[in-house]
Amino acid sequence: MKISQKGLYALEAMMTLARRHNQGAIKIRDIAADSDLPEKFLELILLELKNARMVESVRGARGGYRLRRDPSAIPLSDIIRLIDGPLAPLGDAEQLRGLIAKDAHHRALYEVFLEVRDAAAKILENTTIGDIVRARTGAEKLRKARAGKTAAALKKNSTV
């Protein structure tokens, strides 16, 4: 499995939409700015996500894009498969199973590839965009709290 730059951009865009899920439709330029993505490339990615019914577009002055489902209902695997194809290192899982059955000489190697694919798929299928956003938000809060404690300690030490 290899995640392309386009796949990473799609994941970033979806995370931005997830972070702002309760704010209604988000304009492409705001998604691009928030995610630090090229706007023209983002338009193509959002169109692909729209055609796959992961996002929807809203017309008008308050228009833009928004998630069609709750972020906790969108596994990373759905986005990666849409943009980059199968999660397996060689084709898809069925193709690997076929190679295992047909090619006795390389069976052990293909079985390892299938195990890698299955492990990666399990993680990506059980991790949602919502999980990533919550983890990122939690890490940011922790960083801010630590920075506040450090600043308070420095202030206390400088007044002593």
UniProtKB/TrEMBL annotation:
Coiled coil: none
Keyword tags: DNA-binding
PROSITE patterns for this protein: HTH_RRF2_2
InterPro entries per the UniProt record, alphabetical: Tscrpt_reg_Rrf2 (IPR000944), WH-like_DNA-bd_sf (IPR036388), WH_DNA-bd_sf (IPR036390)
CC terms in the record's Gene Ontology section: cytosol
TM segment ranges: none
Keyword Transmembrane helix: no
Cross-referenced PANTHER family: HTH-TYPE TRANSCRIPTIONAL REGULATOR ISCR (PTHR33221:SF5), WINGED HELIX-TURN-HELIX TRANSCRIPTIONAL REGULATOR, RRF2 FAMILY (PTHR33221)
Record NCBIfam families: rrf2_super
Protein name: YrzC
Organism of origin: Candidatus Sulfotelmatobacter kueseliae
